[in-house]
Design goal:
- The protein has one domain.
- The protein is 69% helix and 6% strand.
- It is built from 5 helices and 2 strands.
- The chain has a two-stranded parallel sheet with strand order 1-2.
- The radius of gyration is 27 Å and the shape is elongated.
Length: 198
């Protein structure tokens, strides 16, 4: 186990030193962009935020239906547990209607199956729609990052969010973070050919 950790640590340090060596030998500067900020309501990329909001609005009825169905399932599950507890309580003097309990159990099973089906269907439809709506915008943002990188003399632009999630940031000069400047640059650009597919 220790060997695996050492190999993993070696790989992380190798990646860090490779970036460090590249930074020292490159005849230019390295920039950092935090892509997580693209989705910020007020300070993010307007086109990106608008597209995310449209997706949320489009799928709100589906998510509301799932939420309502989930609440029904939880209520029925609690009712069944209460009935089961009463049936096992030796002090309970009220007889339990077995047919009624069986009917509720069948309804519960039916609702759970329906929920799972609708949840999987909604997930698949959302993923397809998300790709259609966000794909062109992500591509346009990628092109804009490339343009911004060249225009401002950077030799490389890194995603600080991904580096941070991977635990690859040990130190950071905040002047290298150009997220806000890039977002301003992108939002000021004229509308491009990135279109949302219906």
């Amino acid at each position: 186990m220790r060997t695996i950790r050492l190999i993993a640590a070696s790989a992380v340090f190798a990646a860090i030193f490779a970036v460090s060596a590249f930074a020292q030998t490159a005849a230019g500067k390295i920039g950092l962009i935090n892509t997580q900020f693209f989705a910020e309501d007020k300070a993010g990329i307007t086109k990106y935020v608008t597209a995310l909001n449209s997706l949320e609005t489009e799928f709100k009825p589906v998510f509301t239906e799932l939420q309502t169905l989930g609440t029904k399932i939880q209520a029925l599950e609690k009712e069944l547990k209460d009935l089961q507890a009463k049936a096992q309580d030796p002090n309970n003097k009220i007889p339990i209607n077995t047919a009624s309990v069986n009917a509720k159990a069948e309804e519960y099973d039916k609702l759970v199956r329906e929920y799972k089906f609708k949840q999987e269907d909604a997930k698949a439809r959302y993923e397809r729609r998300e790709l259609a709506v966000m794909g062109p915008i992500r591509q346009d943002i990628g092109n804009a990052i490339q343009e911004y990188t060249k225009k401002n003399g950077y030799v490389i632009m890194l995603d600080i969010a991904k580096l941070d999630n991977a635990g690859l940031i040990l130190g950071l000069d905040e002047t290298a973070d150009v997220t806000k400047a890039f977002i301003t640059f992108y939002n000021a650009r004229p509308a491009t050919t990135a279109t949302v597919t219906k």
